[in-house]
């Protein structure tokens, strides 16, 4: 392996790592899911996020990434869809409070974060698709992937190596956010935040809505 190839691999590894761990919608999403629904749900959400990255990788590896990124209407459409989804997710954090104030209803929030529902197949699918949509509709992920493969990866790089890079990017997303879900659901941490879990969910909901509004304003 020549020095240029080694430098490319190192660059892809470092840039991807820094991009994945930077706070954003995916981090807020996993935080909310893990705190509200538990570790397994958080891990399934992380898997969904990784699979969402594969959407951007697919059209980029087919040579369509630069074309999409250069089309203002595509970026605008993705921005509007992503922003609407984030705002909806953020506002949904307050749905249990709204229902609790309606006549004949009680709060859907279990006190202290207790009583989480078991993770059935439908629940796993729900959090998986939440993570998938959060990433697939994120125009910043699109621009990151397109920039990575157009500016860092050489045009002479073999397709199998590019596929390897893609799998690495997916694995980084899944692994990092699964670790985040695992840390947030550690018994010691849960014992400390048990009484304020509902407030954390509200704060994360506000962050998600805020990110959606910021995404709208960025155009």
What would you say this structure looks like, in words?
The protein has one domain. The longest helix is centred in the last third of the chain and has 26 residues, at 159-184. Helix 1 runs parallel beside helix 9 (159-184), helix 2 (25-37) crosses helix 9 and helix 3 crosses helix 8. The chain has 219 residues and is mainly α. The protein is built from eleven helices and no strands. Keywords: Cell membrane, Membrane, Transmembrane, Transmembrane helix. Its main location: membrane.
Please give the radius of gyration in angstroms: 19 Å
Strand content: under 5%
* Number of distinct helices: 11
Major sheet details: none
In brief:
The chain is an all-alpha fold. The protein is 79% helix and 0% strand. The longest helix is centred in the C-terminal third of the chain and has 26 residues, at 159-184.
Give the secondary structure arrangement, pairings included.
Layout: H1 3-21, H2 25-37, H3 39-61, H4 65-70, H5 72-92, H6 95-100, H7 121-136, H8 139-152, H9 159-184, H10 187-193, H11 197-217
Keywords: Cell membrane, Membrane, Transmembrane, Transmembrane helix
GO cellular component, one term: plasma membrane
Membrane topology: Multi-pass membrane protein
């Amino acid at each position: 392996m020549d020095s240029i190839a080694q430098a490319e691999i190192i660059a892809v590894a470092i840039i991807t790592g820094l991009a994945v761990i930077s706070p954003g919608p995916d981090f807020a999403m996993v935080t909310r899911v893990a705190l509200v629904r538990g570790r397994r749900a958080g891990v399934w959400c992380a898997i969904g996020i990784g699979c969402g990255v594969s959407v951007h990788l697919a059209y980029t590896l087919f040579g369509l990434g630069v074309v999409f990124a250069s089309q203002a209407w595509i970026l605008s459409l993705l921005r509007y869809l992503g922003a609407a989804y984030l705002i909806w997710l953020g506002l949904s954090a307050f749905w249990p409070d709204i229902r609790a104030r309606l006549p004949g209803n009680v709060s859907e929030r279990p006190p202290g974060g207790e009583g989480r529902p078991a993770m059935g197949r439908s629940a796993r699918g729900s959090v998986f698709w939440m993570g998938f949509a959060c990433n697939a509709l994120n125009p910043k992920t699109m621009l990151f992937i397109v920039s990575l493969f157009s500016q860092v990866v050489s045009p002479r790089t073999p397709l199998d190596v590019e596929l390897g890079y893609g799998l690495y990017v997916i694995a980084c997303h899944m692994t990092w956010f699964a670790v985040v879900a695992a840390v947030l659901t550690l018994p010691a941490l849960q014992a400390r935040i048990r009484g304020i879990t509902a407030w954390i969910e509200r704060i994360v909901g506000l962050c998600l809505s805020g990110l959606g509004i910021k995404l709208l304003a960025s155009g």
